[in-house]
Amino acid sequence: MEKHTVRVHPSAEEFPKKEHLAWKVAEVAADPVAVPQDSADMAVNRIIDNASVAVASVLRRPPSTARSQALSHPYSPGSTVFGVPGTYSPEWAALANGTAVRELDFHDTFLAAEYSHPGDNIPPILATAQHKGLSGAELVRGIVTGYEIQVDLVKGICLHEHKIDHVAHLGPSVAAGIGTLLKLDTETIYQAIGQALHTTTATRQSRKGLISSWKAFAPAFAGKMAIESVDRAMRGEGAPSPIWEGEDGVIAWMLDGKDANYTVPLPAPGEEKRGILDTYTKEHSAEYQSQAPIDLARRMGQQLRDQGQDLSQIESIVLHTSHHTHYVIGTGANDPQKFDPDASRETLDHSVMYIFAVALQDGEWHHERSYSPERAHRGETIELWNKISTVEDPEWTRRYHSTDPNEKAFGARAVITLTDGTVLEDELAVADAHPLGAHPFTREQYIGKFRTLAEGLVDDKEQDRFLEAATNTLELGAGDLNQLTVTFSQDALARAPKITEGLF
Q: Which stretches make up the MmgE/PrpD N-terminal domain (predicted)?
């Protein structure tokens, strides 16, 4: 990997285009280097993973809204939309599918200087590949680039410190991935990256306080904007430049300011793209920092039950954890909504106090039952929920930011104190499904996740058809990528909420 220094350059300073970060990213995207087999295999896993969580959310309101918008834009040759037959304009299909993928907060993650869900790259890249009639091998090349750029930007540039939403790294990564997919030249990709970043930079209020359905739409919108940015760049239109380093650019006014100095790693010319292998998926439908705490709560709940302890006798639970967990999904956020049983699903998903309480009591985590209003309003849960707090532990924060994958941790140490003074302590560094966890996900687990989430929603025959196509993505020929979407029966679709008519 080559490390690139990124800083603000005054307009009066000579700063050649080929030194711009956007140009360096575009060069990586334009590099014809072969995709390594393990990166390609992981891309197939994530295609299955995305389909799993999209299928599970198709009948929910935000994906239904996005789908209704896409259905107003039929197009041929176009792109498919989860749940329905037909083809639609690729940017709208990307919006619908991206919203379905993100709705349950249940797909893959990568955490470093910034947070991300790299699987958000797949819907817009796949939609574009379907629209252009490309092959499975070409699709995988585009996906692997999207992941690489997302991971590298996340490693190098922190956004949340300045309350900028992490999808600001997604617009450029999708533009780069589509650039690889379409074999565009460096100049065109460079302009698309600049436009994509400029149009997808927003604040983190979408993940603060009473979290709305926009949390699901935000990455899907970034993917849609990236597609449109590529389209304009292909037609010869340019972008603000230098988009990151300009004196009125993103770094100067949205991030660390004119004295900032970032280091962004990118593959050297001819170097394989392996960033996708640094990412990890979720076993549970919850914010990634909750994955290890859920597994820890399940384990500690069983320990308490084995000891004959009554969970109602818990006096307090303190989770010692990283800065991110404490301040984003813990009590350090100072969000009263995180203790509100009437809060939205999106808000409960970002309350580790609620999540730990339910997982401790139930010994499981379910993407629907664990968030139901009935579950959130259970009296003993509310009582336990309010006994849980988080504190930042410098060692957990250090491990969170470690560049050593064997040391990097996203978990917590839980201290449970009972009313009789008994104290139970335990900790878990990474989730069970993490590559270094107790039960790492393999292709078998990805397929199992799809089967579980599709049960009762998708006919067995349709499940079999999709899984056969997905596992053989690399062998799919030009024009065969429409097989990578799952269609619901009309009876199943009839269960979706009725969406009010909009503009289209």
A: 19-262
Q: What was the pLDDT predicted at 212?
A: 82
How far lies 17's CA from each of 9, 145, 148, 171, in Å? 12, 21, 22, 20
Mean pLDDT throughout 441-460? 95
Task: List, as one string, the DSSP characters of 89-135.
Answer: -HHHHHHHHHHHHHHTT-S-BEESSSEE-GGGGHHHHHHHHHHTT--
Domain span holding position 332: 288-428
Domain boundary pick from 259, 278, 297: 278
The predicted-structure confidence for 467-483, as pLDDT tens digits, reads as follows 999 999 999 999 999 99
Neighbours of 258 (CB within 10 A): 12
**Parallel/antiparallel/unpaired status of strands 2-7 and 261-266:** antiparallel
Lowest-pLDDT range of 122-131, 269-278, 399-408 = 399-408
Q: Are residues 237 and 210 in the same domain?
A: yes
- As a whole number of angstroms, the distance between CA 400 and CA 402 comes to 6
CATH code, domain with 265? 1.10.4100.10
Band (pLDDT 50/70/90 cuts) for residue 53 is very high
Q: Does 99 lie in the same domain as 202?
A: yes
Q: Report yes or no on 323 lying in a domain.
A: yes
pTM equals 0.91
Rg (CA), the chain: 22
How many distinct structural domains can be found in the chain?
A: 2
Q: Is residue 410 part of a domain?
A: yes
- Residues 112, 190, single domain; the answer is yes
Q: What is the pLDDT of residue 481?
A: 98
Euclidean distance between CA atoms 322 and 259, whole angstroms: 27
Q: Please give, one letter per residue, the 3-state secondary structure of 369-394.
A: HHHCHHHHCCHHHHHHHCCEEEEECH
Residue 436: pLDDT over 80: yes
State residue 101 phi and psi, 5-degree precision: -65, -40
The last residue of a domain, from among 371, 402, 428: 428
Is residue 445 domain-resident? no
Does residue 163 sit in the same domain as residue 124?
yes
Q: How far is it, in rounded angstroms, from Cα 374 to Cα 5?
A: 52
486 near 83, Cβ under 8 Å? yes
pLDDT for 209 beyond 80? no
Per-residue pLDDT tens for 58-74?
999 999 999 999 999 99
Three-state SS at 262: strand
Asked whether residue 197 falls in the same domain as residue 331, the answer is no
